[in-house]
TrEMBL record:
Residue intervals of the HTH cro/C1-type domain: 288-343
Keyword rRNA-binding: no
Protein name: Helix-turn-helix protein
Keyword DNA-binding assigned: yes
Entry's Gene Ontology molecular function annotations: DNA binding
Length: 349
């Protein structure tokens, strides 16, 4: 085919992105002869780290390629605040999607998001590729990158001028609610193996990435914690919204965590009980009988084993009275009960 003449706008994109004159002329000549641009273009132009595009590049028409030239030819200088690039976010997609079709579809969404950021929202590529890293401390948080792209689209719609808010997760949720959309709920972080909180005295501490308001208070409606009747709640986060929340508990406090040990079987969110104050716990006499029957023991045998009168034990099983802490521990030992939950229920549930 005859060499295609590129438009002034297309030539300007190429000139702005490629400073080497010979490389630029070589690319213009190539684009003039090809309708579709394949992976070979990167090796043809001797682009640094061309091998990465073998993984994250899909052939596109020449006009789409030209529009994306700033993305392909962007180089981070590796200095503080300038370490991000497109391939990092593309690899984030690659690691998540095993299916080639899903990967290709989501890679295209990423390209289109960067294009909107650059051409529509007028952000330079250094900002585009590094702002999510500044917010999270990670180079491949494609999920937050796409949230930011959505934030920018909504910000344009609602006249919000701040394109790079200091605390992104807060401003993003504000604009989601303004648009009538569901905000992001930030779940607490597992601290130890299967443990989601630590306790010192009557203060319980949970860690994670949390939204805080301008006064330094946690925005609890956006946090995966349901706290009932606390004495007080406070906390602290850094510039990346990572930190902790402290809950001073009392005898009537109850704390539930969202999806701490997974969602329901149908995939729906599940609230798990993390702490319940003693005044909310009730002895369940029906469970006591179930546990005794499970161990094939008589009331007389259990009473003898724990050192109580048989009539006293019978009153526990009938619900007339409840055992104190000492007898409760003895019952757990005799009936092979590992968790006190097996003999108690929570009055607020």
């Amino acid at each position: 085919m005859e060499n295609r003449a590129l438009s002034d706008e297309q030539l300007q994109i190429i000139e702005d992105a490629i400073k080497d004159v010979s490389e630029r002329e070589k690319l213009i000549e190539y684009l003039g002869r090809h309708d579709v641009v394949g992976k070979e273009i990167f090796a043809y132009l001797n682009i640094t780290r061309a091998e990465i595009w073998d993984v994250i590049y899909e052939p596109v028409s020449y006009d789409v390629f030209i529009k994306r030239i700033p993305i392909y030819f962007y180089h981070s200088d590796g200095q503080k605040g300038s370490v991000g690039n497109f391939s990092q976010y593309a690899m984030g997609i690659y690691e998540y999607y095993a299916d080639d079709t899903e990967y290709t579809e989501n890679l295209e969404k990423l390209y289109m998001a960067v294009e909107r950021m650059h051409y529509q929202h007028m952000l330079d590529l250094k900002t585009i590729f590094n702002y999510p890293i500044e917010q999270t401390g990670y180079c491949s948080r494609t999920d937050l990158f796409m949230q930011w792209a959505n934030y920018l689209d909504l910000a344009g719609k609602y006249g919000v001028s701040n394109k790079t808010p200091k605390y992104f997760i807060v401003e993003y949720n504000y604009i989601l609610e303004r648009a009538g959309l569901k905000p992001i709920i930030y779940e607490i972080k597992e601290q130890y193996s299967g443990e989601y909180m630590s306790r010192t005295g009557n203060v319980i501490r949970v860690e994670g990435t949390f939204p805080f308001d301008d006064n330094g208070n946690p925005i609890m409606k956006w946090i995966g914690l349901d706290v009932i009747e606390p004495t007080r709640i406070w906390g602290k986060v850094d510039d990346r919204s990572k930190g902790y929340i402290c809950i001073e508990v009392n005898s009537k406090t109850a704390i539930y965590g969202l999806n701490c040990w997974g969602s329901n079987d149908n995939g729906e969110d599940c609230w798990h009980r993390l702490y319940v104050g003693p005044l909310l716990i009730e002895f369940d006499y029906k469970k006591l009988k179930e546990c005794r029957n499970r161990e094939n023991l008589t009331q007389k045998q259990v009473a003898a084993a724990i050192g109580s009168a048989e009539r006293t034990y019978q009153k526990w099983e009938s619900g007339e009275t409840t055992p104190d802490c000492i007898y409760l521990l003895r019952l757990m030992n005799v009936l092979n009960i590992k968790e006190v939950d097996e003999l108690t229920s929570v009055s607020i549930e």
